[in-house]
Amino acid sequence: MGMIMGDGMYNFLKVLYRAVTTALVKRRVAEQEAHIDVRLRAVRGRRERDAATAAAHKQVQDDRRRTEVFLEDQVPLGVAYGGYVAIAAVCVVTLPRIFPGFKWYYVVVVCTCMPVFAFCNAYCCGLTDWNIACTYGALANFVVGAWTDAAHGGVLAGLAAHGMVGSVVFTASELIRDFKTGYLTLASRRAVFVSQAIGTAMGCVISPCVFWLFYQAFDVGTPGTDYPAPFARIYRSLAILGADGFGSSLPKHCLTLCYAFFSAAFLISFVKDVAGKSTVARFIPIPTAMAIPLYFGSYLGIDMCLGSFIIYVWERVDRAKAEAFGPAVASGLMCGAGMWTLPESVLSLANVKPPICMTFLSRKTYESLHAVLSP
């Protein structure tokens, strides 16, 4: 988590710095052009148009058309900022009334941090195609629960913060995915945004109704039933640990490791940007890509390493075919793995057991097991 946050924070600050500097440069140029002669301004405008035309001709026709369509209907910045402030104000007023332990200043702090979390998660999702919004929700759960403490409703406040951060971060990441799809399919960006907003508004009404139906019809949350809701128990336990405080609930040196890897990821990202397109930059890893196997387990790292090795060998043999058919092969593998879940679920429901099982044990474990099983 520290590596993902460090890499995401660095890229967030980098994008913010570039946006601010670009805005300042444009403003300075506009002020200078106000004092330039009309003829010189016309000459400069002609040169800029010629340069833009030359750059456009270098692009592929499809990419140029996609860019034009995607940039036509932009969402005004005033609408974006004003909408976020308005929704945050509604949350500040309503959430403390629903969850008494979730004070209004907690909501303000969470709303202030959510854009950073959303950017970091969108960056991670775009880089690795893994949406880890639940991790940011768990982080908010733990921090707000520890901030409130158990005596003042820290468990409920942590769970409320978890739901708030998780839903917002997940929706923001999915919106970026929809924008990508809209770019590829020549869809209007404004239409994509409006569609996402309508779907989110419908979910705010439909999801509680569906949950209420399940809650009334089934025994939800009880172990051993059809709907045990295992993640609910996990998040509640996490909120209880957070409400007990950082010192007593976290393992030893946990925060120290988190701070260290956060700083290391920030530094690695900075060094990678400084290296630019040099040969050294190819060997500097991306912290987020390193963190994903640590988060999901070693099996993912082995799979990604094997896939990278295959595409590396393929590029060495025939780069043109590797670039042309590599995405198709990857899509086929992902579709095949996804389609296998259906027969796997059917076999699981039918209680079909595999005819043979295989496991790997260390020598010490094997000797202990052999001593127990041998007559």
Automatic annotation (TrEMBL):
Cellular compartment(s): Membrane
The keyword DNA-binding appears for this protein: no
Source organism superkingdom: Eukaryota
Topology in membrane: Multi-pass membrane protein
GO CC, any one term: membrane
Pfam families: OPT
GO MF annotations, alphabetized: oligopeptide transmembrane transporter activity
Keywords noted in UniProt: Membrane, Transmembrane, Transmembrane helix, Transport
Regions crossing the membrane: 75-98, 104-123, 130-148, 154-172, 193-215, 254-271, 291-314
Presence of the UniProt keyword Transmembrane in the record: yes
Protein family: Belongs to the YSL (TC 2.A.67.2) family.
Protein name: Putative metal-nicotianamine transporter YSL12
Species this chain originates from: Anthurium amnicola
